[in-house]
Amino acid sequence: MKNIDTAFRHVRGFTMLVVAGCIVICCFALYKSFSLVSQMQDKVYILANGKALEAYASDRKDNIPVEARDHVKTFHKLFFTLDPDDKVIKSNVTKALYLADDSAKRIYDDLKENGYYSGIISGNISQTIQVDSITIDINTYPYQFRCYAIQNITRTTSIAHRNLITEGNLRNVSRSDNNPHGFLIERWNTIENRDLSTENRK
Questions:
Q1: What pLDDT digit, counting tens, does each position of 155-178 carry?
Q2: pLDDT of residue 89
Q3: What's the whole-model pTM score?
Q4: DSSP characters for the chain?
Q5: 148, β-bridge pairs
C-alpha cells in the first residue's frame, strides 16, 4: 500500500508538471502568434511586373509633410490647369474645390463673374502650372503652407509666363475618394501673380 501511495504521488506530480508545461507552451505559442500577426499587419506586399515588393505601413504623422505637399500640389494643378473647353474647366475646378474651403470657391466665383473662364474659351487659351516648391510648417496646427509656382499661358500668338505665390492653412479631415490625403485648404489667397516673360509662338 505504501508503494502504491508513493507511486500515485509520483504520477500525480508528474502529471501536474506535464500539465503546467503544456500551459506554458500554449501561452508562449499564443504570444508569439499574436506578435507575428501584429508584425505582418504592418507589411503590405505589392505585385509589380510579376515581382512581389514589400511595403511598410507607417503612422500618419510620419507622412504629414509628404502628403501635405502633394495635397497642395494637386489642388494647384487642378485649379490652374485650364483648356478652352467648358467641361474641362468645370471638371478640374470641381475636383479642386473638394480639396479646399470656401476661400477657393470665392476666388473661383470672382474669376467666373469677371469673365476669366469665358475669355479662356473664346480666346482658345490654355493654361498650365508648374509647381516649383511648397513649404509646410508642421510645428503649428493648422499647418501653414506657401506654394511657389510658374503659370504658363498659351495664346494663339504667344506664351506668357507668370510667377505665382499662394499661401494658406491645412486642416485634417476624413479621407475620401474626392480627398484622399485627408486635408482641407483654408484661408487660401494669392500673395503674388506677376508677369515674368512673354515669348512669341512660331
A1: 988 999 999 999 999 999 998 899
A2: 92
A3: 0.69
A4: -HHHHHHHHHHHHHHHHHHHHHHHHHHHHHHHHHHHHHHHHTEEEEEETTEEEEEE---HHHHHHHHHHHHHHHHHHHHH-B-S-HHHHHHHHHHHHTTB-HHHHHHHHHHHHTTHHHHHHHTT-EEEEEEEEEEEETTSSSEEEEEEEEEEEE-SSEEEEEEEEEEEEEEE----SS-TT-EEEEEEEEEEEEEEEEEE--
A5: 133, 165
The string of pLDDT tens digits covering residues 88-98 is: 999 999 999 99
Best CA proximity match to 84, nearest among 154, 163, 157, 160: 154
Residue from 138, 136, 164, 134 nearest 147 by CA: 134
pLDDT at 71 > cutoff 90: yes
Facing residues of 149 across strands? 131, 164
